Structure formats: C-alpha cells, structure tokens
Amino acid sequence: MIPYWLLFLIPSMAALSSAPRYRGVRRVSLDPAWFGVIALLVIFVGLRYEVGGDWFNYVGHVLYAEQMPLSAALRETEVLYWTVVVLSAQTGLGIFGVTITASFLFSVGLAYFCRTLPRPYLALAVAVPYLVIVVSMGYVRQSMALGLALLGIIALCRGSMARFVIWIVLGTLFHKSAILLLPLGALTLTRNRYLNISLVLIAGALGYSVLLDDEVDRLVQHYIEAEYQSSGALIRLIMNALPAGLFLYYGKRFRISMSEYRFWRLLSLMSIALLAGYFLTSASTALDRIALYCIPLQLFVFAHLPDALGRHGGRNMPIVAAILAYYATVQFVWLSYSANAYMWLPYDNLI
C-alpha cells in the first residue's frame, strides 16, 4: 500500500503548506512542478504491471489487435481508442502503449483542471483516492475520455461552447459514454442560448447516429435489462452527492463566474439524481458509469470549500486538514476493505 499512500501524501503536504490562488483570472497554464505531476502520474499509472480491475481485459484487446489492420480500427465506434490499441500492438509496445497513452491524456486533463482551481494541490489530493487510483487504473477507456472531458469543462466554464463540444466529441471517440456531457453545455451558457442549444442538439444527434445507434440495444440489455450490480456503487454515488449538496448550499459563496455556477449546479443536481436513481432501479452499473463524469465536482467543490467556510484567501488549515482526513479515510477503507482491492495490491511497476 505504501506507493498509494505516497501518491496521496505528496499533494496533501503541498495543499497544507500553500495559500489559495485568487489573484485575478486563474490562467490555464502549467509550471515545472505540474509537468512533474504529469510525469509522476504517467509513470505510476501508465507503467503499472498487472495492476487494476480491467488489466487483463485490455491485454486481451492488444492480443486481438495484433492481427487487426488499422483500417478495421477506423471502422470501430471508439475509433481513437482502437487506433491506439492497434498501433501499440503492431509496434511492439503492447499493453504499455495503451496504458501510457491513457495515463498521459488523463493526467494532462487532470493537471490543467486542477490549475484552474484556487487550491490546485488540494484538488489533486482529493483526486488521488478514487479518480486516480480506481478510475485511471481500472477504467482505461473512460479515463481517456474523462481527461479530455476535463479540458472541455474548462472551456465551457470560460464561455467557449465550440471548444467544449470538440473536447467532448474527441472524448467520445475513446469511450462513447462521454457524449452524456453534451446536453449540460446547452443549459450552462447564457449568451446565444438558442445557438448553443442548437449546436449541442446537432452534435448530440450526430454523435448518437454515428457512435451509439448500432449499440443501443446491447447497452440496454447489458446495463438495464440485465440490471448489473456494480460493487460499491452506492458509496461512490454518495461521494458525489456530498459535494453536490455542499455546492447547492454554499455555492453562492464561491467566487466563480455565472457560467461556472450554472454548470456545477447542473452537475450537482445530476449527482443527487443519480443517487436517488440507485434506490429506484437495480441497474447500479449504469448509474455508476454515468457518475464517473460527476467526479470532477468533488475536486471543484473541495478546492473552493475552505474559502467558502473560512476566511477568504486565508490558509484555513483546519478545513483543509479535515478534507484531507476525509479522503485519507476513503483511501484507507477502499484499499483495506473493498472487494476489488486485491486487483490493485500489491502495486507493481514495469520499472
């Protein structure tokens, strides 16, 4: 467990020792320390060996792709993912070509997203127990889509619908579920609302017809009719609903733009609706996979909460420490008691 705890403690110590960033508009830029963060995550996640819930499934994809022409990958719905798999298989990179690419896309999106927040290292520490350890090391395709979705969220909150749509569509080409974020864009921006709604509807219709139409029956059968149960889904839905409730109650105290407020309010309502849906349907796997795209809400809310509850611009260390203690507990419980934790333990790396 030591590598996982080191990965959590490094940003936690930085979060406790740094003041919030509230000087003007927070630019989307990375300094050398954050390039180091990306490199560390790529090494830790991308070079892991036989670690993660879907490891052997993705090994199977690579073995299958060894005899798969690139033209066949271009006919797949998740064309960018299968292109990466085929190129990795046929250049001798194997599974590591896939995991390194996935970890890079995820890490870049995560790093840029954290840098837009007033307490970026606190957001990074919040991300480690579940978003990094579980999602990026267990949901390879969705981690690629989520990394690009984070870049799309940044663009949307800064008023660019076009860039939001581009990032989400690119994410959909790694995992089709990313298209679920498109409708949120139409309800977020106030300027040119009818144009925004039309753009999202057109993009969604195209995405559905091109990417989803042929597989809707299979998705319904697997996720709804079969009513697959996702282990630990209730806990993960609660983890999203908690910051959702905090934002709905304290969100007016966050120093954010109106477009940001609208987006995070929508995502908060979606998180609470998913939790309610858990008790109304037994298709917990479908809810769990949708909820992955609500996880950024945890980073956003807890990076703002110390200033919403404490002195604005102050270190507010007791609140920061309480947030870190909560996520340390999450990590301890998951590694110690999760039914699937054995697939992450012990941690092993190619290096």
Describe this structure in words.
Mean pLDDT is 86; it is low at 210-217 and 219-229. Helix 5 crosses helix 6, helix 7 (120-136) packs antiparallel against helix 16 (296-309) and helix 16 (296-309) runs antiparallel to helix 17 (317-337). The chain is an all-alpha fold. Helix content is 70%, strand content 0%. The longest helix has 23 residues, at 258-280.
List the helices and strands and how they pair.
Elements: H1 2-17, H2 32-46, H3 55-65, H4 70-73, H5 79-90, H6 94-115, H7 120-136, H8 140-157, H9 161-172, H10 182-186, H11 193-212, H12 216-225, H13 233-250, H14 258-280, H15 284-291, H16 296-309, H17 317-337
Query: What is the radius of gyration computed over CA atoms, rounded to a whole number of angstroms?
Result: 20 Å
Percent of residues in helices comes to over 70%
Order of helices and strands: HHHHHHHHHHHHHHHHH
Q: How many extended strands?
A: 0
Can you give me a brief rundown of this structure?
With 351 residues, this protein is an all-alpha fold. The protein contains 17 helices and no strands.
Throw out a few tags for this protein.
351 residues, mainly alpha, globular
